[in-house]
Amino acid sequence: FDIRQMGLLYKQISFTAKLAGTEQYEIPVLSESGDITAVHLKLVHSGEEKGMVEATMHADELGDISVKCRVEGNVINGFLIGSDQKESDVLEELRETFKNQLKDSGFTVEELGVGYNRHFSAEFKPDMEDGENAQGNVSTKELYRVAKIMIGVIREQTGRRTT
């Protein structure tokens, strides 16, 4: 191997490792009212955002919604953001339902905030204490459990709103 080949090999390995640390899915969801929408789901297993689960969707009756949480063991910190402040009661109800279902599933919810942004962007990060980086243990199973709860709550809420 010469230096160029080693450099190229290193870049390929780094790129592959980066991809392996994040899973992204587009999940079609049939709401309880019979409408179909897509939920973009992102799970982060390693790196700076290790332990993040994010679900983003658009529903005609609710606008854009994003739920983003950091999972550390069984502790959840997160945020819900919507594009339409007129739907604040719906977003608050979504938060309470999500929070209750997480607790019923054995998670401890430290913080679950709500916000609005007309120019919708899910580029926010739940706060971490004192610059702590995500070095704690995060099991893939826990990330999937939180994702399943997120999608179920979104599905339920969009169905309620359209009926």
Average pLDDT score: 77
Please describe the biggest sheet, giving its number of strands, its sense, and whether it closes into a barrel. 6 strands, mixed
Distance between the termini: 65 Å
The stretches of 5 or more residues where confidence is low (pLDDT under 50) are 126-135
Strand content: 25-35%
Radius of gyration: 18 Å
Helical proportion, percent range: 25-40%
Strand order of the largest sheet: 1-2-3-4-5-6
What's the count of strands?
6
Number of helices: 3
Structure, described:
- The chain is an alpha+beta fold and about 160 residues long.
- It has 3 helices and 6 strands.
- It has helices at about 5-20, 90-105, 140-160; strands at about 20-30, 35-45, 50-60, 65-70, 75-80, 110-115.
- Strands 1-2-3-4-5-6 form a 6-stranded mixed beta sheet.
- Strand 3 (about 50-60) and strand 4 (about 65-70) form a beta hairpin.
- Helix 2 packs antiparallel against helix 3 (about 140-160).
- The longest helix has 23 residues, at about 140-160.
Labels describing this entry:
single chain, 163 residues, alpha+beta, 6 strands, globular
